[in-house]
Amino acid sequence: MAERYELKSKEVWDGNMAAAHALRQAQVDVVAAYPITPSTPIVQNYAQFLADGYVDGEFVKVESEHSAMSACVGAAAAGGRVATATSSQGYALMVEVLYQASGMRLPIVMTVVNRALASPLNIHGDHSDLYLGRDAGWIHLMVNNPQEVYDMTLCAFKIGEDERVRLPVTTNQDGFLVSHTAQVVEPLQDEDAYKFIGEYKALNPMLDTKNPVTYGAQTEEEWHFEHKAVQHKALMESFPVIEEIFNEFEKLTGRKYNLVETYKLDDADIALVVMGSAYETAMLAVDKARSEGIKVGLLMPRVFRPFPYNEIAKKLKNVKAIAALDRSAPMGTTGALYNEVAGALVANGQSAIITNYIYGLGGRDTTVEHILEVIKETKQNADAGKRVTDLQGFINLRGPKLSFN
Amino acid sequence: MATPKEMLTTWDNIQFGAVLPSFEDPEKKIRSKFHSYNYKVADWRVEKPVFNRDLCIDCDFCWVFCPDSCFEVEEVVNKRGKKQAKIKGINYNLCKGCGVCVEVCPTPIKSLLMFPEHVETQEALKQWPTKEDKKDK
């Protein structure tokens, strides 16, 4: 039996430590991981907890991230609660197996620390890896600070393992800005956290030798489409389950999470859509802009996949102009968040003017002043009643102004 | 034997996560339609294994290694009075022609050999190599 870990009502944890404690409290059966900056401390701390007797599970050291996720798939198919952590290049190496995990409907939890993808090599935070995995059939939860890392990691187990969902889940925190920034976190005690997540229920476990099953069957043109449609349906229908679990979490902790988070959006004329740590920077910018009389609000999809498109359209119903901020190199088109939000608006017959900004690549600092500039440009569109600024701009990029129209 | 067409179903009746059970009723060992015993793979084959009963020593390696349980066996009592599985032959509906049985067959002259699909079994047995053939090499 695992030892109980003494926790104070308030701890000072960075995002990695918060994730490691959440994994520990979930009493994961198998963690298979390969270390990579900036997520290394998650599995390092977890291994320490295990060595010190605070965990009953197995820690599998593997030779690559491809193997890490493969071992996770095997362990989850065998019937265990499984988790891992990764970033960037490791995430990229895992991608093939991410699709396997979701196709087999294995509720693995992966605590991702988002980091730029090479080349050029960069260890700092942006959303390149998240965007790479966005079609992999996983549920992607967004977090902005260590408290949310802790909370969302606990919720991730409960969401993924719900019998109405049974899908793998990632939590996404910005490399260094969240993962290595120590803040006050209010954790649950071990027994309360475990009670919230609940016992793991294995579904079709391979270790049930009396009822042997095949995982990873081949399905050609006469089968594959139906399987993928059902998998998509599970994602699309997970919204109410996620909300239900967020509500249950609120009852337990008083901390309320939503499919779509907003800040001062109710009476706003213009809105910024942004995910991750920049959301908190943008809050300060919004306060400043409002003190100057600009009615601006913020929106963030807490759940990036499934994408809450109707909820987002509803919340943006009354704004005149929107800026969608993407923290990933768009490489030949508008950013993914821009595309998703624009699609959501069009589908609901809304015609707010929407522009795209690329920011923070490779951990480039994005400050309140930078966000204020975006707010002011977006206000120009709202005031003119048509788009007068360029379609896609770059924030805090050195050199002559770069934009696309 | 179910054919793929008969097995087809709609998305709302599809197997969860493409996880296929071997048995409809695990207690009574009633095989499910997904069990490989109920799936004909003969048309995957280019070459087929031919079994030569005269050379077989019933080591059962082929039976153990065959990934699709093609080998039909019967329980017999051997000279030493012990129960043994005697290889009777190959179920060609289940054989996809992988050739692993030929690979693991340990007799000096193989009791299993691959032949082109169109060669009749009797014809194949006539073409079987002999000790003399082996010496020539």
- Given as residue ranges, the uncertain stretches of chain B (5+ residues, pLDDT < 50) are none
Beta-strand percent range of chain B: 15-25%
For the largest interface, the chains and their residue counts are: A-B, 25 and 17 residues
Total strand segments of chain B? 7
Task: Give the structure's gist in a few sentences.
The complex is a heterodimer of chains A (405) and B (137). Chain A is an alpha/beta fold and 405 residues long.
Structure explained in plain terms:
The complex is a heterodimer of chains A (405) and B (137). Chain A contains 13 helices and 17 strands. Chain A has 405 residues and is α/β, with parallel strands linked by helices. Chain A folds into two domains: 243 residues, Thiamin diphosphate (ThDP)-binding fold, Pyr/PP domains (Rossmann fold); 145 residues, Rossmann fold, CATH 3.40.50.920. In chain A, strand 2, helix 2 and strand 3 form a beta-alpha-beta unit. Chain A is globular and about 70 Å long. The mean pLDDT of chain A is 97. Chain B has two domains: 35 residues, no CATH class; 78 residues, Alpha-Beta Plaits. In chain B, 19% of the residues lie in helices and 23% in strands. The model of chain B has no long low-confidence stretch (mean pLDDT 89). Chains A and B meet through strand 9 and helix 8 of A and strand 1 of B. Strand 9 of chain A pairs antiparallel with strand 1 of chain B, so a sheet runs across the interface.
